[in-house]
Design a protein that fits this description.
The structure is a single chain. With 534 residues, the protein is mostly beta strands. A hairpin with a 4-residue loop joins strand 32 and strand 33. It is built from 2 helices and 43 strands.
Length: 534
């Protein structure tokens, strides 16, 4: 295995000696080095160190794994890949100020992968610690995650910042807002896809709080928010919204909430705005009975006949909800289900490709799963359901729709492997002997291979999804995580094994032909120029 050392062996020896006695110390601030989880973007990784507020951009397309260093805003707390772009987004909370040190605002920094492109810094002001972004990466929304303390004397937990990442920072970008509160704080933010509302395509941010949710029009950030209560003021239940689906053809939101037996249906109707800051739509709210404690839902049917399929393990049935007609159809199940996966495919007695669903449970200890044919479901009901026994309970699942299969994880015992492959067409399960769990498993970019890295072991395992052949590669040290990278020009995808090391240690594998002999190891890159003042 080839090794690339960024620092001389003498320096590495010194670092090793120091690390053996105490954690690595930051020379100016006297604080130990603390790195956020690395982010894979483009041809390399971005590493963010919290106390020095620095980012190391490692270019793995070069033989030596070249590293360049970038300054960030103080107290970075989150780094993620920007959707649809070769950029890393770093959220920094800023600093409160101290003797000899001026306070600084919270910022969001966009770090392009290209060395020639400068970072973009969006001034947020407040010390936000949460970030959500749209699927296309155009918009981001910074917010406060619920925490016991925020490290400030006073802060507004319902403040948010709307950022248009496709535009340069400016006086109106980002836009700071405070969402209306009924005593709660934001728990999570989800974004709608582009959907037509009142004749205009727009993207909505849905802020989920206990017992209510808030809609923000990202295309019109100056317009007022719309808050929708899910309970009456005197209702003491902790109704927490947990899942939101969007019907883009009908401008409708479906909301599932913990501690509620209903699905909330919000249809966005056009209205004439009463002023420049008013919205041109308003939601109407309807509730449909979904059984006892629904745990998952999915939209089914054509665009002009959209319905909602819901599983409720407490009711031991599935339900089809039609918001247009306010009707509910119960579909009896032989085995309770908590989750559902939609797929298109054939069946053992039906060679036609048709919409179907797999229903299963991961916490109830049941060994059965159900296949549901979605065609004429309301008329045929239970006759569209086939239940098969797996002999072992299911603990987790990874959908492989392009392979017409689902990889299932089972509890550990002495009777068989922890994994099995469920063929969605033949409806049969084949065991795969495995000494690892699906937790932390990841696909390469084109979903040809599934990679797993059992924490603490010095091996990386993989399953080739073309023929479901398993394999493993032995490395030079224990593995903490595995990250996949897209293919470079003339080469296929690559896989990075991350090793525990204060100095930085990764092993690069060929994603198509992983082997110890062709692997490259990079060490010491996180200490490059560490003692120099940025």
């Amino acid at each position: 295995m080839a090794r690339k050392n960024i620092l001389p062996w003498s320096m590495l020896a010194l670092v090793g000696a120091l690390a053996a006695g105490c954690p690595a110390r930051e020379p100016e601030l006297g604080e130990g080095l603390e790195f956020l989880s690395p982010v894979a973007v483009g041809n390399g990784l971005t590493w963010v160190e919290r106390h020095r507020a620095l980012a190391w951009r490692q270019d793995l397309s070069t033989p030596e794994g070249a590293v360049r260093r970038l300054r960030l805003g103080p107290d970075p707390v989150l780094s993620v890949a920007r959707q649809g772009a070769d950029e890393t987004l770093v959220l920094s909370r800023g600093q409160r100020g101290a003797p000899g040190r001026a306070p600084s605002p919270g910022v969001l920094t966009a770090l392009p992968s290209a060395a020639s492109a400068p970072p973009r810094v969006y001034t947020l002001g407040s010390p936000f610690n949460g970030l959500a972004q749209t699927a296309d990466g155009r918009y981001a929304l910074a917010h406060f995650r619920p925490e016991a303390t925020q490290g400030r004397l006073l802060f507004n937990p319902n403040e948010v910042a709307l950022v248009d990442l496709s535009q340069a920072p400016g006086m109106s970008n980002p836009v700071l807002r405070t969402v209306r509160s009924f005593g709660g704080v934001p728990n999570r933010v989800v974004f709608s896809p582009a959907m037509a509302v009142n004749g205009r395509s727009r993207t909505l941010a849905v802020v989920l709080s206990d017992a209510y949710l808030t809609l923000l029009d990202m295309d019109q950030p100056s317009r007022a928010e719309i808050t929708v209560r899910l309970t009456l003021p005197e209702d003491p239940r902790a109704i927490r919204p947990s899942q939101v689906l969007f019907d883009t053809n009908d401008a409708t939101l479906y909301v599932r909430a913990d501690a509620s037996n209903d699905i909330y249906v919000l249809r966005l109707l056009p209205v004439t705005p009463e002023g420049p800051s008013a919205n041109d739509f308003r939601p109407t709210v309807n509730q449909l009975a979904a059984g006892r404690q629904p745990t998952d839902m999915a939209l089914v049917g054509a665009a002009d006949n959209r319905r909602l399929l819901v599983v409720s393990p407490g009711s031991r049935d599935a339900r089809v909800l039609d918001a247009r007609s306010n009707t509910v159809t119960e579909v009896p199940l032989e085995a309770p289900a908590e989750r559902l996966l939609l797929f298109e495919g054939a069946a053992p007695r039906d060679p036609r490709s048709a919409p179907r669903a797999l229903l299963f449970a991961t916490t109830l200890g049941t060994t059965a799963v159900s296949f549901v044919d979605l065609t004429d479901l309301e008329e045929r009901r239970g006759r569209n359901v086939e239940t098969i026994q797996l002999q072992r309970a299911v603990r987790g699942a990874v959908s492989l729709p392009e392979r017409q299969a689902v990889l299932l994880e089972h509890p550990t015992d002495a009777t068989g492997g922890r994994l099995s492959l469920l063929d969605l067409v033949r409806r049969t399960a084949s065991p795969i002997i495995a000494d690892t769990a699906l937790e932390g498993a990841t696909f390469d970019e084109d979903r040809q291979t599934l990679w797993v890295a059992p924490r603490g072991q010095s091996r990386v395992g993989f399953i080739e999804l073309r023929n479901f052949h398993p394999g493993e590669v032995r490395l030079d040290g224990p593995v903490a995580d595995v990250i996949t990278l897209p293919g470079s020009p003339g080469a296929g995808p690559r896989v990075l094994a991350l090793h525990p090391s204060a100095a930085g240690w990764v092993t690069l594998l060929d994603g198509r032909s992983p082997a110890r002999e062709t692997a490259r190891s990079f060490r010491g890159f996180l200490l490059a120029d560490l003692l120099e003042e940025p």
